[in-house]
Amino acid sequence: MDRISIVGGKQLSGSLAISGAKNAALPLMIASLLTSERLTLKNVPNLADVNTLARILRNHGVDLAVDGKRADPSPYLGETFHLTARDIVDTTAPYEMVSRMRASFWVLGPLLARCGVARVSMPGGCAIGTRPVDLHLMGLKALGAEIEIDGGYVVAKATKGLKGARVSFPKVSVGATHAVLMAAALAKGETVIENAAREPEIGDVAECLAKMGCKMEGIGTSTLRIQGAGRLEGAVHTVLPDRIETGTYAFAVAAAGGDVELRGARKSLLDTAFAALEQAGVTIAETEHGVRIARNGRGLQPIAIETQPYPGFPTDLQAQLMALMTRAEGTSVIRETIFENRFMHVQELARLGADIQLQGDTATVRGVKQLRGAQVMATDLRASVSLVIAGLMAEGKTTINRVYHLDRGFERLEQKLSGCGADIERLVSG
Ligand code: UD1
């Protein structure tokens, strides 16, 4: 298994390119199941999760062609995928595939809408809580699906097709919103989703579905009104920039100090996270090509924050914020309200000398004068990148084991950071 080694204490400068959003690319790829025509996606990030999903989609019968290298003036544009699901040859998504990545469960809605039947293994993915799928099933049942659980599989049927309905979610869920949104696009009649997640990646998928021929109102709000199209066409869509990757590098620059332009980043996607960084003493400015993050030698101010669905502070940046606050001049309080078990980075940060007390859903972080490099273990996707941030601040060498978690969601992380002056390298095993 590969490891990453970091020698801390180097300031960052220059620029790095932000990739397309993983959390938009995955559902957009899944949307290809909704049409027999070609869906072309531009700016797809090169990530382990994307490759896992590509394998799952191929198993259902999706043809996937990836454009070769282009002499492109915008080096931050990712790969171009052409996905064609002319015939769905298999409506089962097996355990061996779905257990590797939770978002692959989201094929359920589109398969059901297109074929009237789907059999999808209950999901796996990052171990950050129980992460049930009751809301997905509730939404699909409202559209007329009959659902039973059999041998660890969700078996869904809609022999007469899905019918538009009002779906009012008792809790905001990104995945369940995607599921109902995609299924409703092919259902007969109008669907209204109330208390829909407002994450920009939902908006990106909704815009792509609109290009595919489905009428949609309320994009970006918590009430989505979808006129089922019965049949969808092909489309060309560009994946929006990754706001979690953007935030992660912004926290990294804040941690290491320096001045870096994040090319291709969109500032408006991160209002809450950037407000927190500004409160901590970091300078953030929109530039012609992205966002510039700078911190001079001044100390970091502590902050109090809780994670919330968009537009609140993202749970996917909680670990990174905590890493930064380990060196603040005072005590920060971080409350995790989305996932009940998302503090696995705490004990690893403690190995570097961080002072963090956990009580229920709240972490109290007392800033320390210095972190010291150590061996640490990546436990999940976002937790592992928080260790990179801590390593950039620590004195001496930090070695992060099990970096396959990082490769699921961060493209060329060590190249991007070393290009800005970080002393970071991948130690390839065997
Ligand atoms: C998505 C993101 C993930 C992010 C999360 C919250 C992708 C690929 N993943 O995950 O990076 O951390 O949103 O912003 O986009 N819940 C239920 N029942 C359900 C579904 C969810 O109780 O049927 C709960 C979950 O346990 C959790 C909360 O709702 O406590 C939010 O989860 P959800 O928004 O669904 O997260 P994901 O879609 O899995």
Summarize the SSE layout with pairings.
Blueprint (H helix, E strand, L loop, with lengths): L2 E5 L4 E6 L4 H10 L6 E7 L3 H13 L2 E4 L12 E6 L7 E2 L1 H4 L9 H8 L1 E5 L12 H9 L3 E5 L2 E5 L8 E3 L5 H13 L3 E5 L5 H12 L3 E3 L5 E5 L7 E4 L4 H14 L1 E6 L7 H10 L2 E4 L3 E6 L8 E3 L11 H8 L5 E5 L9 H7 L3 E5 L2 E5 L8 E3 L3 H13 L3 E5 L2 H6 L3 H6 L4 E5 L3
Parallel strand pairs: 2-15, 3-14, 6-7, 10-11, 18-19, 22-23
Antiparallel strand pairs: 1-23, 1-24, 3-5, 4-5, 7-9, 8-9, 11-13, 12-13, 15-17, 16-17, 19-21, 20-21
Helix pairs in contact: 1-2, 1-7, 4-6, 5-6, 6-7, 8-10, 8-12, 10-12
Bound molecules: uridine-diphosphate-N-acetylglucosamine (UD1).
Walk me through what this model shows.
The chain is α/β, with parallel strands linked by helices and 430 residues long. The chain is 31% helix and 26% strand. The chain has 14 helices and 24 strands. It has helices at 22-31, 48-60, 95-98, 108-115, 134-142, 174-186, 200-211, 243-256, 271-280, 318-325, 345-351, 381-393, 404-409, 413-418, and strands at residues 3-7, 12-17, 38-44, 63-66, 79-84, 92-93, 117-121, 146-150, 153-157, 166-168, 190-194, 215-217, 223-227, 235-238, 258-263, 283-286, 290-295, 304-306, 331-335, 355-359, 362-366, 375-377, 397-401, 423-427. A four-stranded mixed beta sheet has the order 22-23-1-24. Strands 2-15-17-16 form a four-stranded mixed beta sheet, covered by helices on one side. A hairpin with a 5-residue loop joins strand 12 (215-217) and strand 13 (223-227). Helix 8 runs parallel beside helix 10. The N and C termini lie close together (8 Å). Bound molecules: uridine-diphosphate-N-acetylglucosamine (UD1). Uridine-diphosphate-N-acetylglucosamine binds at residues 23, 26, 102-103, 129, 131-136, 171, 173-176, 197, 201, 315-316, 338-339.
